[in-house]
Amino acid sequence: MAKAYLLSNGRYVRYDTDADRVDADYPKALSTGWTNLPEAFTSDLDAALDLAGGKVYLFKGAEYVRVDQQSNTVDPGYPVLIADFWPGLAEAGFGAHLDAAVTWNNGKAYFFRGDHYLGYDLNADHADPHPKLIAGNWPGVAEAGFGDGINAAVTWNNGKAYFFRGDHYLGYDLNADHADPHPKPIAGNWPGVAEAGFGGLVDAAWLKLAQRTGPAASGDEHGGWARAHDVLHVGGTLAWRNNNPGNLLPGRMPYRNALAVDRRGLAIFASHEDGWTALRGVLRSSVYNPLSMGDALMKYAPSGHGNNDPVLYAKRVRQLTGLDPARRVADLDDAELESFMLAIKTVEGFEEGRTFQRTDPSLPPEFAALFP
């Protein structure tokens, strides 16, 4: 049973896609739906985006917050600037005041602003080089009067996406890659939406997506891995089992490609590449980039967190890299940054274990029994 959320003027409704109507007891105020939502985000949101990782991203002005959809709580450390954590958006003129955002079936998200849109590759974690006109690139959309000023967009679970503009909406067939012939009024076609007072404007919308395929629990819980994959991970350190070479904490920085969090609070990534990309993003962020390497490591591995000794940590990194800790992270070239990251990976204790396929004849019986 899928649920969608439609927002308007500081309120929201929850829409049951199976029943095809707004749930009872809605609308509600945004401030009552999500804990720790900053005051500025309690009305007039610009856009929303669900990337199927259990998080939804709410955009307003030049900032955004990330909301955990299980606890309905804003993650710590937010809001943050769009420009700092969505590479390429600000450079393309999409760093503030978005009109709408939507995930697509091609591994991309699309951001809309005025009569232009910008693609964002979720795997590469970077925006396309240039924005493009909606007209001529979204067949039928401009012809239906939706070529600029889209208020909200959402991908549905019926093979369609819906664009909202004023008191009308427009369906878009994802497989045919073409808009429906004509827009329709929200009133009378979205049961309960107009009755909730949303018939004239939908600010933002998203369909709550299931978690992406990935580890069901931390990597040392072999049964969790077996249920989530046809591959069993045995031995190795948590950093390896979680595909998290930097032992990153998702509460500290926003990792859009993290699948989940293990019971120790460490991020779990679908692949080592995803974890590596996240670590690079942290070090190149506005939080770490201006710092010296030494200061960056003091922030990265502060005393009082676990058994961290930041002085020894920094000393070990210097031994491994040969780099002057007084140098700014921003001044490191790509090869030097890679060396810095490899040193962090080593100090974090990244050690590989063994993987077994379900059909592997060498799979020990006690592990084979973990596969359902």
UniProtKB/TrEMBL annotation:
SUPFAM superfamilies for the chain = Hemopexin-like domain
Q: What Pfam families does this protein map onto?
A: Hemopexin
SMART domains cross-referenced by the UniProt entry: HX
Q: Which InterPro entries match?
A: Hemopexin-like_dom_sf, Hemopexin-like_repeat
**Protein name per its UniProtKB record:** Hemopexin
Q: What's the source species for this entry?
A: Nonomuraea glycinis
